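FW: tagging you since you asked about this chain on Friday. Here's the raw sequence from the shared folder, copied in full. Didn't touch anything.
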Amino acid sequence: MSERYNVKENESRWQKAWADSKCFEVKEDLSKPKFYTLAMFPYPSGRLHMGHVRNYTLSDVVARYKRAMGFNVLNPMGWDAFGLPAENAAIENQTHPAKWTYQNIAVMKSQMNMMGLAIDWEREVATCAPDYYRHEQKFFLDFLKNGLAYQKEAFVNWDPIENTVLANEQVVDGRGWRSGAIVERRKLTQWFLKITDFADDLLAGLDTLPGWPEKVRIMQDNWIGKSQGLRFRFDFNAPQEGELEIYTTRPDTLFGASFVALSPDHPITAALAEKNKGVADFVQQCRSIGTSEAVVETAEKIGFDTGLTVRHPFIKDKSLQVFIANFVLMDYGTGAIFGCPAHDQRDLDFARKYNLPVIPVVIPDGEDAKNFAVGTEAYTGGGKLYNSDFLNGMSIEDAKATAIAHFEKAGKGQGTTLYRLRDWGVSRQRYWGCPIPVIHCAKCGVVPVPEKDLPVTLPEDVRFSEPGNPIANHPTWKHTTCPTCGGKAERETDTFDTFFESSWYQFRYCDPKNPNKGFDKDKVSYWAPVDQYIGGVEHAVMHLLYARFFTRALKKCGYLDFDEPFTALFTQGMVTHETYKDVNGKWLYPADLKKEGDSFVHAATGEPVTVGRIEKMSKSKKNTVDPVEILETYGADAARLFILSDSPPERDLEWTESGIEGAWKYINRLWRLVTLADFSGTDTKTAEETRRKVHKTIAEMSQDLEKFHFNKSVARLRELSNALEDFSAAKGDGTVLREGLEVLVRLMCPLMPHIAEELWLQLGHKTMLVDTPWPKADPALLANDTVTVGVQVNGKMRAQLQLPKDLDQKAAEKAALEDPAVQKAMEGKPAKKIIVVPNRIVNVVV
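HL: got it, structure written out here
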């Protein structure tokens, strides 16, 4: 037997064996508990990057471990295949987006197969395929029927490079999230989904997701942005007539008001702009920065004095100037605010710029009112009201309630709840997306495409040489007849935002070949919700929020019986790498370098190279590592091992050559340890200690895998292999050595499946390791570390678990509920109550 592991031969052989046996293809099986693990599907850009490799490795570990634990595991994969990059590539390469996309899918799928992933490829989907998007067109028609979709004219974020509308969530620091172009504001007729109908439910639902990271739940809570406030009216002074309606969350600070500001999009602003060129020019200046709240908040605060004033509602003979200000949003509140500079930083910046009064009305506890003043920072903390007449001495909350009551009694205002969340604009002016299935008729108005005519497919003969939307520019595609009156009509030329496709793909995987509907309700009820979802935190307020809404919308339309699409969520960190620059500050690839001593020089010129910060891998910074080169050189198992061992998976992973080389060396150590093992030893001096180590590792590693402590799992494997190396070298008892090596190999399987399969075969087993159950620790050998805990379901004993001593209650509950025998006994019913007697018993009541 060779002392060096033949990675290329063995990995390809076992990948073929898994594929031939169809061991990862699954169907509904009521005799087993199910487990649905899902990694966020990729955009088919053409090549995997190391972020993909990390994401899919994490999901694969979960899938293989749960399968070994007796679960019926669904681990599918597909392609988020619509989007502007395909159109851009079509322009650059003079090819069709479909051709470019499917070529990329083929390449990336072959690269994924090199990783040996436990994927059910029979469930593969591509969102650009008509047999996928025809069903979302049907969903949209149902949304229309149920009042969840509508069309209106609205200011939108316009990306001038991509020539399309962006959702607020797709504008990052005032720029398009893909193109990086400065976003502009335009008014267009758009299709919207009524996500705001579910604002309260989406908020409440966050409390039912303990398996989600707290930071993601907080981000969604903040994005939905529920606030209690006051909607009230100022009276205009002459010459302006009428009232100005305001919304505020801080009615307690009204005595500190020093100005009023209108949105550039407010109707009063529009009326002024018709008569005043200065107003019109200022509005145009404001619209050049985009519509998103983030960019408005970070932009310099500028205003235009309208010359109008309003009367202060509490202070006789006091008037406030009315400005138009670039930081006031029309789609939040009423599009008009009052400014209290002392207690709002944005208002303070504005007041200092335009020399407006700054009047403190909240004083911190213990401060002297005579000496308290606001400098360059607004005071936003707690305290008592002062300088506020009838509100003096009150707490902030009491003052808010009193001010609201004052306006309500006078009939000039009302306490109101508002949300930061806006309806989801799903219209995009591009070709490579799902056509929106409606028809515009001059006589009948907006007419849904009849269900029998779905899917509405894209025209293939399009030109990308003209600016604008290729569908709208097509000479014939949009021309059709009205389904209602039979007259001439035009198809909708906008396509859906690509987040539409990714909001329901998790359900299509449950029934991917159904030609008649998006999915069978019974099949989805078996598999969904997803038990473990894995992906990047950057999707917290886009994809993840939209998917939660979409699930509720589908439930309202009768497709589903549950609210949440993903029970548990894991957000992995980024993959980072050193950056390098030449003497002129130009980014260099690692391949451009040559090491001389302890430093680097440019391989071609010999000039010194600067080693920069460790940053996220990025093509622009040339610090990427090609996964294919790694897989071909070191193999999938070595790549997986390094990814899993270097840091906790929720943190960033720094890619290093020494790290991957170390993983490769360790795999060869394991190869030699098992294949060169001598089982003729008879020394029993450390046999008991070795067996305890083996079974302790089973118990501890099982807990590590449940908790996503994959780096700890690798550390325990290394400790066990070291102990077995020592035991083997000491000619330890052959029976104990075989037991230890077999357990070691079985524990390796979720992490390094290829070499584990080969070593299992070398140990004489005919059944593939992938079909072998997870090892169980012997309680007698864990006496000092674990206890046997019985699990009852409605008073009947259903399982006995080996758990660490003094395990906390929540962890004990989780371990009990995840046991296959317990899940089978629960028959899919939720637990009404769980009683834990520490170190003894867990009683589940259903």
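FW: The radius of gyration is 32 Å.
HL: agreed, and The CA atoms of residues 642 and 663 lie 6 Å apart.
FW: great, closing this out.
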